[in-house]
Amino acid sequence: MASPSSTTTTNIMLAIFEKKTNSLDLYRPLRNFIVINYSEREAQNLEDDLETLKQLRSDVERGGASDSPSARRDLLQNYYKALCAVESRFPISPDADHVNTVSFTWFDAFKTKQKASQQNIHLGISRKLNHAGCVCGVCGNVRRLMLAQAQECVYENTIAKGSSPGVCAKISRQVGLFYEEALAALSVAPLNQHFDKAWIAHVQLKAALFYAEACYRYSLELHDKEEIAEEIARLKSGVSALSEAKKSSPRGAAQQLLDAINKLETNLNRNLERAVKENDRVYLMRVPPASSLAPLPSFSMVKPLPMNEVLDASKEKMFASLVPDSSAKALSRYTEMLDDIIRTQAEKLQQGSELARVRLKEMDLPDSILALEGNLTLPTALKEDVEAVQICGGPAGLEGELQQLKDLRRVNHELLVQIEEQLQKEAMEDSQFRNQFGTRWTRPQSSTLTKNLQDRLNRFAGNLKQAAESDARIERSVREHSALMSILDRRPIESALPTLAKPMMSLDANEDAVVGALKQSLRQLETLGAQRAGLEDMLKEMKRKDDILPKLMTSTGSHEDLFRKEISKYDSICEEIAQNLEAQEQLLLHIQAQNDQFAAIFNLEDYKASREKGYRQIEAAIAKFREIKENINEGLKFYVTLQDAITIVKQQCSDFVMTRNIQCRDMIDDVQRQMSGLSFQDGKSTTGGHSFPSAGPPYHSQRSNSQQQLDVGNMPNSSHPQPPAYQPPQQPIASGYAQTPYGSQQQPPPPYHAPVSGPYPSPQHQPPAVSHEYGQPAYPGWRGPYYNAPPQQPGSMPRPPYTVPSPYPPHHQSGYYRQ
């Protein structure tokens, strides 16, 4: 069974108490300096900073008996940072032009009667730094003592948690090592002149105590493993260390510490006696000498806190507005010199990286190595083009779009058939009544009123026919180039590229060695590049922290000498940059030779040629896909626009037929009245007729002497129009869709890049023009030239639009297909 730690109840720690100090007024001398060298207004602006400094100094002088250690530590750190700000803005020295009424006094922490005073703020800062460092436990050589005590606390916690003997032994051994390092520092100058002998005795005994504690814990683990010989040797080593420490250490150590040593020594001797008996009776193993034993394992659980981070005053804003003119000018000059150095070195680094990139590209590295490993890559621009094609469906998606063209063409064709059937039905009914009533059927024949409409339908039919031919050519192009474009459906697209493989036959079979050496050189080149990036960051960081303003404000010599001294800080990093670039140049030459050998073995030139051929095939496939895709899109746009135009004409045709049907019924009634001898006469009017205005109540009646005729060119576009009367055209109408009396509609685009003068009409979606006489009413019984038109001969129906010869140029004269 392991006994509790020998130091459980005797954890005696050493501490450095705060040093004494004298009362010091910083407020008045600094304010006077600001007023004399700057202005009263500047002093007023900095009043808050002066008061803050005054309060910090007062709190430091008050002592920390009532404060917690952490609060006192924070106070000393803030005061130190404030002194750094004062140092950079106020020259404190005996000189007449400086702040010469401030004197800093320092007392020894151990020998309090010893003190030193100087009119130098550097003394105040350095002493305050040391004092703050002691409070934080990280001051110079005393750091090891504080680390030892911190590790000791961890050890006690480990024992309390019941950790294994092996773990406890490692942590205990590290405690002893820290104490041994502290003892070495306290035993020599200058620390041996300041620390009391009792401190040295304490540290020496602690070093021996925790070494012996590690031996004790380690021997427990050895006993469980039945390694009796080494257990005996470790126990003897621990007992010997304690005996030697008690004999050689100075007097003055705490009694609790001596009691802990005696207790541990008793435990070691008891276990040693037991182990020796077991070895003599059972194991009979030879005990090795202590000098042959391996060092005990150790493990550190604590580490020092970097003081440069804790006490970094670079962000301190106190008195930031105070910069003397002379110092500002000198600082500007130094900054220019420094910027020139940074800029020059940064350019060298960037040029080095660019040179490496260009040289590797010339050697086709590392692409050729990646190709050998199967990691093929496309040029970025080509890769993006392929991804764009695949996102929109790729060549496999063209079939679906071709089917859309067919569906839209069918819909347009069906619309034209419906219109034609509607017009033929109306014309047939008109012809039947004309045959039935003879000369009494005096209204114009349908063919004379639907000429413009028939022209439009013929144009649409011609457009559809030509579009069908264009669609057929697109389908043929898809079939003919499907093999070319199929490469775009490969996923990943890199699988379509040729691969770089080992030669089928080799004389010396050194391919792997050549590749391995080349890859190793490339890794070295990458390491040099990473080093350059680190050097550039280091340059920027050095410049960021390079603040020589305090030195400029306190300097009494030549600024140029100071500049040269400060600039020399960058000499080492500039030399590293030069060495890096030189190493890269030599490495690139070596890589060139290795790559030549690699290219010869793997026939790299033939691979490059086949790879470029693959690139060109992909580029050609993309170009052909885009060409076909563009033509399909133009076709889809054409059919949609044509459908809109045909729909408008269909509505106009419906309006025409509805109006003709209404007039037909009225005329039938009129003819029947004539035939039965009935006539409706109005004594106050001479004529009568029928007309239906475009707006207002339907069938509104009034007398009119004007002759009106029905013309489909003036039909409204509403879905439920009032039946208007026919009006003859005022001027000859040229053939063409855009010049009919219906007004202009939007022209459907010609099939796929047809020229402006091509066969496709130009419908404009605008409301139809309305004649000034449109909408005059008429009544049954009206007799006028409208009914006196010469009758049309039976059977003179116009041919359907699909039988009219197309007046448009053949397909080879228009659009994308004109080769």
UniProtKB/TrEMBL annotation:
Residues 721-731, 747-766, 791-810 have a biased composition (Pro residues). One of its GO terms (cellular component) is endosome. Residues 679-689, 701-720 have a biased composition (Polar residues). It comes from the Eukaryota. Residues 36-63, 254-281 form a coiled coil. PROSITE patterns: BRO1. Keywords: Coiled coil, Cytoplasm, Endosome. Signal peptide: none annotated. It is found in: Cytoplasm; Endosome. Residues 11-356 form the BRO1 domain. Residues 679-819 are annotated as: Disordered. GO terms for biological process: protein transport to vacuole involved in ubiquitin-dependent protein catabolic process via the multivesicular body sorting pathway. PANTHER family: PCD6 INTERACTING PROTEIN-RELATED, TYROSINE-PROTEIN PHOSPHATASE NON-RECEPTOR TYPE 23. This is Vacuolar-sorting protein BRO1.
